Amino acid sequence: MDGRHSLELALPGASIGAVAGAMAGGLTLFAGLPTGVAALSALALAVPLAVFGGLYGVLLGHGVFRPGTFGPAGLYWMAAFPLSRLLQESVAGVGMADGVLGFLAYQAMVALGFAIGFVWMHERLMPHWLLRRAGANPRAEALLGLYVQYAQALRARKGAKR
Amino acid sequence: MDTSNTPPATAAPPVEDQRVWKAGRLEPMPIRKLPDAPPSVHILGPTVFLVALGVGMGESYMWPRLVLLFGPEIRWLFLIGVTLQAVVMLEMARYAMATGESIFSGAARVFKPLMWFFFVVAIAVYIWPGHLSAGAAAFEEITGIPWVVTAVAGLILVGVVFSLAKVIYNVLENVLSLLIGALVLGTAVVAAMVGSWGDVATTISGMFAIGYLPAEAMSAAWFPVIVGACAFAGPSGMQQMWYTLHLRDSGAGMGVHMPKVRGLRHAGEQEAMPSRGFMFDTEDPAEMAKWKGWRRWVTFDALLLFWGITMLVTISFTVIAQAAVRQNPDVRSVIQGDDREVALTAMADAVSSAGSSVLGTVFLGFIALIGLNATLGLFDSFSRGQADMTYNFVPGAKKLRMSHLYAGFLWGVIIFGILILLFGPADGPSGILDTLAFLSTFAMGAYCVTLLLVNNRMLPKPIRPKWWTNVIIGFGAVFYLGMLFYSLFAFGVVVG
Fold first, then answer.
1. Could you list the residue ranges that cross the membrane (chain A) (predicted)?
2. What domains appear along chain B, each with residue ranges and CATH number?
């Protein structure tokens, strides 16, 4: 039961990862590449990014990450993003110009940018999802409590102006 | 401290502090409590507007173009421009968070004509729909829908959305947040797929080639272009000044004591807007501790979100452009030409032919997205700023509600924009955008001077800027105005 509760927390992160990965592939298709190639390329990036994105949500629920903190999330993606890209390149890639090490170093750098976007989106989506699940899922409720605590000062002030 | 029970400031309840802070000749600011700062680690904040507005043509087109022409070493100027803007952002926030007033009110406290200058410049610069047309032109490349149709539809959409919104700030924040998030994620993914370590290494090392200016850059043809690009590194024109309005409306610092601007349909629910801001007790250590918290919060926003995202997007676009030239060396000569649409298309084509897919469409998609962001953000900010100045400083304007003034300016600029697009000097999008450049750069120099005056004269001593901050802002004034006038006198051209 606890496993399911944890998994539920993965949904927002997994969706963001999947969409980000699919973006590349979806647009590939739009630009006229063969459907099969585009789909494979999209899938090969979307799946690992979704897995890592979901894992981020689960770890957030277990208190490994704190809501909205960038540092740890940046480090996390510096490892996860290059791995995802490596997987994509090995399944549906065109070869790495700089060799594997140069490739990984470059991807790790881009990963920091990806992490900013990811945390940004995650912070926007997660609270809505938690609000929905808090009733049936104690883990979601606990995490929501944390968000509420962070947001309380702001909310209270917004409410006062109504 | 719990501010949730604080009655609306205008009701002047008897228990409130009777002390005031006198700033300039305008109405003194009553002393009120500063609210607690949000934890600085938490990502929230009105920087999203600045990012949405700031990540525009400068990042996606002007700088990649300069890098292709002059090599990555030219980017040291970009580093200076964006870093300067990060400091300007912190200083704009200082006044807005300490008083809940916009920087325009601060300028009026120093010298009223200064504020009217910005009022006029805003109209002169921002009623032209130029910023919109670049994005619409990119959209035309993708879909074939004529850009005028997209641009007009976009304008009407913006007007309707902001008129129906209950509290404008919330709608804008949500929409822009999602767009920016998509842009950042997408840019990262695309850069990851087309770029290589070599591109990034040259792009980044170029940022530290301080002082590098090749001979051809110092020519009548190119120096003005470089000046324009420096002004477009990060938020350009008056965007930083509008940022103070967003801080106020999001309740940052003393902005908490100000009511929010509502959409036209909900205008009746809006509380009366006080004609002056507030000040907190800077002699009270507890209040100063909260102030430090607010400064930390905005610094975090400035560094990570603003500086980080602007850098990321520019580096990514530069990497994409470099990849484009590698695939198709002809791109370089096309880009040298003056026609931005041709250059953007060439970059997109080269990126597409890179075999590594599609990225051409993605590239144009981002240009369209950036155009949409700019439209949403600019129109809202323009109307907000003009409404703010009109409400506070035009005699008799207080009979109207702020929301009505906002709607008036919004629809005014939309209708004017549509007329220009349909019947105006329609010599293509670039023709409109170029007029912007001189005044917009001039305004940036002028707001640096304004900031120095406002923050050093209108704020209590304990919260005035440090000397080194003043030096940086002073350098900003010299940087923008110096380059602008050097270009004007040495080459007889304003800004390209």
1. 9-31, 37-58, 100-121
2. 53-491 (1.20.1740)
